[in-house]
Amino acid sequence: MDDAAFGALAEAFREGGAERGFARLAERWLAEKNYPALFETRLMAARVAAGLPAILNGPPEDLDPEQRAKYEQAQIAAARETGELFLRDGQIYRAWPYFRAVGDPAPVRQAIAQAKPSPEEVDGLVEIAFHEGVDPKRGFELILEHYGTCRAITNFNHFPSPEGREESALLLTRTLYADLLANLKRAVESVEGSEPQTDSIAELIEGRDWLFEGNAYYLDTSHVSSIVQMSVNLENEQTLRMA
Question: What is the pTM of this model?
């Protein structure tokens, strides 16, 4: 805490005691949107209320079970308050550590589901949603949308949980199927002069063996190989049919 903050705290303490002093300081941090400082202020107030020094270098000791329970509840309440304030300001990445500390990913999961991140925010949301397992399916969607098929395939091989895996496999397979379909349609149009009116690859290639003359291919072969390998462990019929 800087000198100005200490001065404000000392003045508030002189005017109305500890409770009013911490309340005044909290108001200041709220007005300035300094939420980490607000969190620390809430903890200091809880320590003083429990008969402890306002500032500690480690976990509080010498608390009876009732005091400890009250202090822990105050910690949880402060973390939730801080996380909710960050979410209200759209700062999901900064909110997450507070909700993670109390073991409640639900508010962050909901925020990620509704988020339309800027390019600068995508990395942070992918880290939380996919790599930390808050919402792997949404995290995978962000990877595929913003980083492309190659990176999506690589990350699929390290999918963090069974939850959302089938849905993500279907999304990836649909994307590759659509890419292959579009490439084949362009090839047919370049020869026949019009785009085929079908969304079935089987129908599109029927009777057009010339499409594969000279070992021609229309999708990165490593992507095809990955989808085939991936399909071995999948159960969704639609995904398997496209793969």
Answer: 0.80
